[in-house]
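Hey, sorry to bother you again with one of my protein questions. There's a protein on my desk that I can't quite get my head around. No rush at all, and the record is pasted right below.
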Amino acid sequence: MKTRKDLARLFLFVATVYWGIWLGGYIFNALMVVPGWSHNPPDSILNYTREPHFLLYFFSAVNPWVFLASLIAWLLTLKLDTRARFWLGGATLIAWIMLPLKIWMIFTIGGVFNAAMQGDFEPNMLNTINLWRNLNWLTIATATIILVLHLLAILNFNNQRQLKELVT
């Protein structure tokens, strides 16, 4: 059981760090990168895509793993006597509910970028960009909640569950 607890603690720490990196990256993206390519589409998109960007590496290195790290950490706490399980379970549930939205957002903005690069940009795509930007801020707010729940899980990792929880 000690090995399981150590693994749970490790994955909880990794998941928390990943969520912090994810959140910081998305805030940077929303404040510094998105205004650059979205201020005058399709021209701003074409100007943005002329140079390679580190951003794609960030998203491919962090996006898929952040959700998986939370799930693994939560699964490892299932048979442990720790209050972290409650906070981590909530964080993981919210994250996995958010995942389909993130996938949709990736494909949607990718479609807008492809349309701009192929000369097929349509005026109604401005609405898509505005929706995407608003949903991006929603995911940032959601990720903030998820990170706070992970931090609460860390703070409660060594606390045992209440006696009535153990009986039921």
Remarks:
- The chain has one domain: 2-167.
- The helical segments are 2-38, 43-49, 55-77, 84-117, 125-155, 163-167.
- The mean pLDDT is 91.
- The CA atoms of residues 17 and 116 lie 35 Å apart.
